[in-house]
Design brief:
This protein is of the alpha/beta class. The chain is built from 10 helices and 14 strands. Helix 2 links the parallel strand 4 and strand 5. Helix 1 crosses helix 5. It is globular and about 60 Å long.
């Protein structure tokens, strides 16, 4: 297949490049730094988002379009300007993806659009599935809603990938989450009862491939593991995998002082069940947190040993 990826230089994008190259697909990576990134076997970098850029001239005939572009939600304290950057970066890049698709003579068979479980809002008790169609009203939910609405204008089969916390050794939240335990100061964050929807990066890449190949899949799809855990359970399991203590609590008020509104990413959560993936026959490689964290810790240790 020919696959275009916008935002392919990030954590998930890099994992997808490795995954699809192993399957010998032809990849077109849309990047603002394309001129600085030399093409290699199976990977061609294409400039986009510049005033004179016309990526559609270089990706005619692609079968799949994956959009991962946008300013990271945890890239800094949620000031008014940061919120604006988060919202505008997602809406502008998604509008550009839709424009490119509508310009192509032969449209891709599918658009896979990055989204987030933040769509559902927060709750310690409710279990959210893709059947929950009414978004919450906080900043994150509103941002996700408008982001998804832009993607749905593509006119082709569209999958809205609602990511939970993606765990992997090459980026994402895992490095930050394990740091306190490596320093022997890990412990409960806030009440510890806030749910943490998570998924292993290997299951993310495989689930994306599954969505591409399963033509009946479209609309919102929860990219979360089937096992639901609280932040406290996550910390205890991580401590056990790293053979470190889980003892030093971090009160909520300190997190709010440090992070402001962005602290909701750690202090609040939601239980999100991957109903559509499971109903469409996807089998998770890491359905349980213990297996996922044990594998990640082992991978990290091997990398350290090779240095």
């Amino acid at each position: 297949m020919k696959i275009a990826i916008a935002g392919g230089n990030g954590f998930i994008g890099s994992a997808l490049i490795t995954y699809f190259r192993e399957q010998q697909h032809q990849l077109y990576i849309l990047s603002r730094q394309a001129e600085k990134l030399p093409s290699r076997d199976g990977v061609i970098y294409v400039s986009w988002m510049g005033k004179k850029d016309k990526p559609e001239l270089h990706i005619e005939g692609v079968d799949v379009f994956i959009n991962l572009a946008g300013v990271s939600l945890n890239s800094g304290r949620w000031t008014a300007s940061r919120k604006q950057a988060i919202q505008s970066s997602r809406e502008i890049t998604t509008k550009e993806v839709v424009r490119i698709i509508n310009t192509l003579n032969k449209k891709p068979k599918i658009l896979l659009q990055a989204s987030a479980v933040g769509y559902y809002g927060t709750s310690n008790t409710k279990v959210f599935t893709e059947q929950d169609i009414v978004p919450a009203t906080d900043f994150l939910s509103t941002t996700v809603y408008h982001w998804e609405q832009e993607a749905m204008q593509s006119g082709i089969r569209t999958v809205l990938m609602r990511f939970g916390v993606v765990l992997g050794v090459d980026g994402g939240a895992f490095s930050m989450m394990k740091l306190p335990y490596r320093l022997l100061v890990g412990g409960r964050i806030g009440s510890g009862q806030q749910p943490l929807p998570w998924i292993h990066i290997d299951d993310v890449t495989r689930a994306i491939d599954h969505c591409i190949r399963t033509v009946s899949m479209e609309g919102p799809v929860n990219f979360t593991a089937p096992e639901s855990v609280t932040m406290e359970q996550f910390g205890i399991t991580l401590a056990q995998a790293m053979q470190r203590p889980h003892w030093l609590p971090l009160p909520s008020f300190i997190m709010r002082l440090i992070l402001g509104e962005m602290s909701m990413l750690l202090l609040e959560g939601q239980r999100v069940y991957p109903e559509r993936l499971l109903n469409h026959g996807f089998i998770f490689s890491y359905p349980s947190l213990k297996a996922a964290l044990t594998k990640l810790v082992q991978q990290q240790s091997k990398r350290i040993e090779k240095r």
